Amino acid sequence: MRLRMVVEWSKGSPFRYAWKEGRLTLVAVDQPAPVNYGLIPGLINPADGEEVDAVYLGPPLPSGTQVEGEVVGMVWLADGDHKLILANHPEEALRDLGFLLSWFHSDRKPTFVGLEGAQTFLRELGLDP
Questions:
Q1: Which residues on neighbouring strands pair with residue 39, listed in sequence order?
Q2: Where are the beta strands (DSSP E) in the chain?
Q3: Measured distance CA(91)–CA(94) in Å, rounded
Q4: Residue 80, C-beta contacts closer than 8 angstroms, at least 6 positions apart
């Protein structure tokens, strides 16, 4: 299944933006992001009432970019704020999974869940992968 996401925080950039009402707003200057981090517009995660978070594995993309990628899995988190993983070259992208998981605090128990787990999550949100 392919989904489109909006990049809020570009890989390698310390500038973290939030996508609100169709535009970016700077919310923080932080450590550089290890991945392109953003959201799936219009798809709400009941765990936090916000749009589902997503990461795009690949080269850096400017904040505000809309990119489409194949769902290859997700980062499962104990608090339910799971992160979908998108990529256009899954076999290459998944090599850096350990680095991605280490980005999340260990209290959240980050775990990689493959395509089937991501599809189950999407079904729970009302999508038919």
A1: 6, 53
A2: 2-9, 15-20, 23-29, 36-45, 50-57, 66-76, 83-87, 111-113
A3: 6
A4: 45, 46, 47, 48
By the 8 A CB rule, do 63 and 17 touch? Answer: yes
How far is the C-alpha of 70 from the C-alpha of 1, rounded, in Å? 6
Domains of the chain and any CATH numbers = 2-124 (3.90.80.10)
Helices (H), ranges, 1-129: 90-93, 97-102, 115-124
Fill in the amino acid letter for 70.
Answer: E
Cα(34)–Cα(13) distance, integer angstroms: 9
Residues 6 or more apart whose Cβ sits within 8 Å of residue 14? 29, 30, 31, 32
C-alpha–C-alpha distance, residues 105 and 41, integer Å: 25
Whole-model pTM: value is: 0.92
Q: What are the CA-CA distances from residue 124 to residues 16, 26, 47, 96 (Å)?
A: 29, 31, 12, 27
Q: Which of 47-51, 101-105, 116-120 has the lowest mean pLDDT?
A: 101-105
- Residue 21 vs residue 62, higher pLDDT: 62
